[in-house]
Design a protein that fits this description.
The chain has 122 residues and is of the alpha+beta class. It has one domain: Orthogonal Bundle (Arc Repressor Mutant, subunit A). It has helices at 18-27, 34-44, 53-65, 89-113; strands at residues 32-33, 69-75, 81-87. Strand 2 (69-75) and strand 3 (81-87) form a beta hairpin. Helix 1 (18-27) packs across helix 2. The radius of gyration is 16 Å and the shape is globular. The protein starts with 17 loop residues before the first helix and ends in a 9-residue tail after the last helix. The model has no long low-confidence stretch (mean pLDDT 87).
């Protein structure tokens, strides 16, 4: 993950392994090529998270090697050859485990920070 542009102070550094779960979550909505995955993460985070291609493609290879996603060549909407990635059953199971862990972490952090879930720190 990286930050780009002048609003870097508004962006959040991610914990190691976060990109994997973001990719898996994005692929729940259907197959997508790499640039589409990066764009979806950026849009769904309201431009807080930007995925650097230097991080994205190694993560995609890692997830494919683990059997959590599969890839096949196709043609993108702009008529370019691209690899399209799709979530596997194992990937869905991993996403469920990761989501549970993230919920536990977020809840614990909220307790430590004295937040009740409805509050945000600005």
């Amino acid at each position: 993950m990286t930050t780009q542009d002048a609003s870097n102070s508004d962006r959040i550094a991610l914990l190691q392994g976060t990109l994997d779960v973001l990719i898996l979550r994005t692929l729940v909505f259907g197959h997508q090529h790499g640039q589409g995955i990066a764009r979806a993460i950026q849009q769904s985070s309201d431009d807080v998270l930007l995925v650097d291609h230097g991080s994205l493609y190694p993560a995609l290879q890692r997830l494919e090697k683990k059997g959590w996603i599969v890839a096949e060549w196709g043609v993108s909407a702009n008529n370019r050859r691209a690899r399209f990635y799709e979530l596997t059953v194992l990937g869905r199971e991993q996403l469920a485990r990761e989501t549970h862990q993230w919920c536990r972490l977020a809840s614990a952090m909220a307790r430590v920070l004295g937040l009740d879930g409805a509050e945000t720190v600005r």
